[in-house]
Every structure is written in structure tokens, then in C-alpha cells.
Records
---
Amino acid sequence: MRIMGLDFGSKTVGVAVSDSLLITAQGLEIIRRKEENKQRRTLARIEELIDEYEVGEIVLGLPKHMNASEGERVELTREFGERLERRTGLPVILWDERLTTAAADKAMMEAGIRREKRKDFVDKIAAALILQGYLDHRRMCGGEQESSEG
């Protein structure tokens, strides 16, 4: 079994998957859609990846504000998570994603990736950072599953 990490955005979903030992996260791809409310193909692609990588659990980044308040994106993310859980039958863990996009951008800057190319990778890297944070937490807590909505 592997765990999938998702960074849900208005027009993209960054996708990452763990290794089979649940130690490391690798960015897989960015699923793009033309309109925010058009999610059928996005969900279908996620299902394909779940089958291909034998995923048993999904971690979905929850985009809280820095002061921990919740805005419209949090509600849209929760709705997407519920839809994903119903469609796949897998547990969807909501995981605090504050600073992951900034961390992804910083990592790319340090790697020398030019600013205009960063948008091609940022969501996939953010998904990997979300998933890695969850994997690290899970290992430290003895494999317990919990949401970091807090």
C-alpha cells in the first residue's frame, strides 16, 4: 500500500505518492483543468493513479490562512475531499498545508529553476511536501492516522 498526497488548487491538482515503505514522497504530476468546477476528469485521473500505484489512503492539503483561519479555499477543498472519498472509497486525511507552496518555490529557486519555469512544477512539489509532512508525522506518532485540521 502507498499513500497519495494532493495539493488541490483552483485549476490544478498536484499529485505525489509515497514509496511502498511509507518513508518518502515523490511528486508524480500536475492535473490541469480549464475551469475550477469541472472536476470529473480530475477525479478520473486520480482514480487511475490510485489503481496504478496501489494507493490505500489519500492526504489532501488544507489551505488555511497563516493565522489558522479558514477561507473559501478551505471549504472548496473540504468539498473536493468529500467527493474524492465517496468516489474512491478511500480515507481522505486533511493535512495543514501552510507554507508548502512557498517552500516548494524556495526549493526550486535554490535549485536554479528560472521563475517562468517554476509554475510548471510548484503544485507537484507542494503535493510531495504535504505528503512528506504527513509521512514524517505518522512515523513519529507510531503510524496513527489523524487530521491536522486542528
Note: Helices lie at 40-53, 72-88, 100-110, 115-118, 122-140.
---
Amino acid sequence: MSSQSDPSALSSLEFFPYIDDRGQLPDQLQGTVGVYAIFDQDKALQYIGYSRDVYLSLKQHLVRQPEKCYWLKVQTIDRPSRSVLEDIRAAWITENGSVPPGNSTEEKQWSQAIDVKTQMTTDEHDSYASSIDEMAQVKILKQAARRIEADILNILKARGVQVEIRFNPKLKEIGSLDLK
């Protein structure tokens, strides 16, 4: 991890685990401003983002893409500056030689709330489509959201994650899953 406004080369930064041996995200990133690169289990670059609170962003990505968040590289900066953050991200993408999937074809899965409707089972889709009123549809969306939430939490538990994960209950009614 590096802290400065001049971009460090992505290759010069050290990898560190997304989840430590206590099942926690890197506590030292709470409230920090910076640019981060997320890598999968094989250390293949998946996503480059920036945030005013790197810790909270990493928590969101872990829930949205739990199978692709294994390693990190981070550069923090002292003063928030969107242009500095964007410049660092652009430099890292250029250095990589190609745009990571999370910044191109998979961007929605990395940067937006989980769309429950895209992950509904055939039975859930059929029940939703044949519902006679909006309340019945809301109930089906909430049930599907709870099922998907349970699946995510099971994946995280299997990885040893001990971080408290709380989903926003109001979003379930509209078919979205995101952290509170």
C-alpha cells in the first residue's frame, strides 16, 4: 500500500490479501481515500476503482463479486481529488495493457447493486410474471432477495469472512441487494 498523490506503478505495489487470517477486510483502509486494484485468486486483475472510503467500497465489491476478490493493491492519497484518483486509475489501466473486466464488460456487476430479477429462478420468474398485484410481486422479490443474500453469505462464510454484512432491507422490495 502506498500513500501519495503521484501515481505509483501498479506493478511496484505489493499484493495483500482481501481477507486477512482473522476474516477481516484491511482495517487500516477505513476512511481512507484512494485507488485500489482487485485481483482474483490467481492474481489476475479484475477491477480498478477509487473511493473516498476504500474500506466501504471493498466491502461492497466483496458482496457483489465474492468469487473474484482475493488480492488487493492500494494507493491512498491524503486529500480527496477526483482528478488525481482518475489519473491514477487511468495510469494503472494503461500499465495493465487492457481494461480489466470489472471496468468494461462486467462493470455493472462491480459498481451497482445486485439486480435480484436477473438471478431469479424459473419458478420465481413465473410467479412474478403471473402475480395479480404489486404486493404479490414485492413479496416474490423479497423472497428471491433473501435467497440470493443467503447464498452470498454462505460463500463469504466458506471463505472465513468475519466482517459484519448487513443488507439494506428496503432495497429488497424493489429487487435490489446492497449493503446498508
Note: Strands lie at 2-3, 16-17, 33-39, 45-51, 71-77, 114-115, 176-177.
---
Amino acid sequence: MRALIQRVREAQVRVDGTLIGQTGPGLLILVCAMQGDTPEAATALAARVAKLRIFRDEAGKMNRSLLDTGGGALVVSQFTLAADTSRGNRPGFSTAAPPAEGQALYRDFVAALAALGPRVETGEFGADMAVSLINDGPVTIWMEN
């Protein structure tokens, strides 16, 4: 699985103009399931994200995790993280998991993250979503397993 993690002051996701998910201080996590990913991979990535030390401590150093801060998470599915741009000008997405499999793995990721304690809200898998955020830092981290 792949994830693009952004430390945010706030983030929201809307579908057809309706707010469906949001978070205050914490993380916006864009997630993509890849072909061959497993539920175990989703659980492992969720644990890595939750423990990633990218929040400031008292000294201003990135030394605290989402679990340490009590922040929330907004998790949005984004198959375009599977983009292959190695040939031509049009990205290919053939390495992304098929939709039904991707949706199941997305749900596994969300459930595993929520089980670790943070408040987790989500986008709508497969929907055309409008995501807004206020970056904190900015801090943006790419992860995959």
C-alpha cells in the first residue's frame, strides 16, 4: 500500500458539496492499495503512520506521533498514487488494486488506524471528492510497504 501523509491544522472532504469527513489538528492521509497488497499490509501501514514522529515536541523538534498528540486523521482513498509516469505524458494506473479489492484494503487500513486510538474520519471510496486542507509546516511524507 502507498500513503501520502500530510500534517494538517485542519482538513475536510466533500462529495457533491456535502461535508462527509473532517479533522482538526492531525493528519490527512491519502491511501492507495496496490496489486498484491494484503490486509496485513494495510494493518502494518496504519501502525507505521500512527507512530510516525512528525509532530513538534516542546523543543520544536519533530519527535511526537499522532498517538502522542491525540490528533485526528482524515483518510481519503486515492488510486492515482499508483500512477506510473515512466512512459509518455499520460499516467498509467495498472498497478493499483482492482476497485473491490482496493476498497476492502482501504477499509482495513481505516479500521486498523482507528483501533490504535485516533479519531478517524474518511472520504467516500471511488467518489469524486473535493479535499481541502491547511498544511502544518508543511510536512508531507510518502510511505509504502
Note: The chain has one domain: 2-82+93-138.
---
Amino acid sequence: MSELNGEEKQLVDWLADMNEDQALDLARRMLLQDGRDPLRVLELCRMSMDIVGKRFEEGEYFLPELVLAGEMLEQVGRMAKPLIKDGGGAQKKLGRVLIGTVHGDLHDIGKNIVTFMLDINGFEVKDIGIDVPVQKFIDEVNEFQPDVVGLSGFLTLAFDSMKDTIRGFEQAGIRDRVRIMIGGGQIDETVRSYTGADAFGINAVEAVNLCKRWLQIAA
């Protein structure tokens, strides 16, 4: 975290340490009083959620901490979102993205950040939650008709679930209708190849850029 100044590191630490009141007060001051870049504040949130995820994996944190982390992120997001784009709500949506955490995985922090970032960048996003079975993804693709499907997963077991989901798309005859991106945890090119996804994103900004590139939208 050497690239962070003192105030930024304090926000990351307070969020990761579950110091809710102090973290939210600092985020509010940074956004509403100091006029800090809301995207930078959300990036600090992402850094803190990475720490939370690692602590969960190591058994230091449990489900209540994940829930509280998600609630804090949601509150910061509510403060940041109106500051990012003025009057963006009425613009024509750039494309449709279906996103969910694959079956066997209950993590939603990273997925929520991606959903938020896609939304503020003008995409119509449908988030179908966590622990989503293959058939649910297939049904939602047929109903929502997305351009892109995002498969999220933090645990290593999610890699097999992602592969199962994409194989399910192939068997249902819908694989060629959508681009598929994966993200979360230790995703890399090896995992992308294993699952059969079109691409992987290491963070929410990359996920947005992938969608823009696929839909030929100027970044």
C-alpha cells in the first residue's frame, strides 16, 4: 500500500478492520467535503475488500464480517454514485450484462463492485446473486438476453463451477449468443482457459473495459 497517502491508508485499514463508524465518516468527508475523486474512493474500498476476502479465506473472518463489509461498501457506494456522472440516468443503456456468483460460492463483494461500476458506466445490469446453479444462469440468459455474462467466484472451487456453467451454456445451445467474463479470487489466464470463458478481469475497471471493447464502445 505504499502508493496510498495517510488518509487513504486509514480508510482502507478502517474498512478492513470493521471500524464502521470511523470508516464511513472518513469516506463521507473525503467525498462530500474534500471533493476527492469518487472512483478513487471506490478503488480504496476494493483494496479493503481484498483484505477482507483474504482474512475470510484464512479463517480470521467469518460470514458476519463479510456481511458487514458488504453493507459498508453499499453505504460508500450510495455516497459516491451521485458524484460520478451527472444526469447519466436517462441515457441510453450501452448493453446488457448478466452477473452472478457461481454455485458453491457465497462471496458477493467483488461482484457487487463490478455491478456498481457497470451501472454507473451506462450498462443495464442484472445481478442474480450468489450460489447460482447452472440452470438458473441458462434461464436468465434466455429471459434477459444479455450481451455479456459475468461469472464471479472467490473460492478455488468456483473454477469448476464456472467450467460447469459454461459447459451448460454449450449444451443448451446458448454459448455463441454471449461473451463470458470471469473474475474474483486468483483468476488468471490458466483459469480462463480451463473454464472456457472468453476473458477474465482482475478488477471492476477491467470488467467495464472488457464490456466496452466487446460492444465496440469507446472507452
Note: The beta strands are 96-101, 124-127, 148-152, 179-183, 199-201.
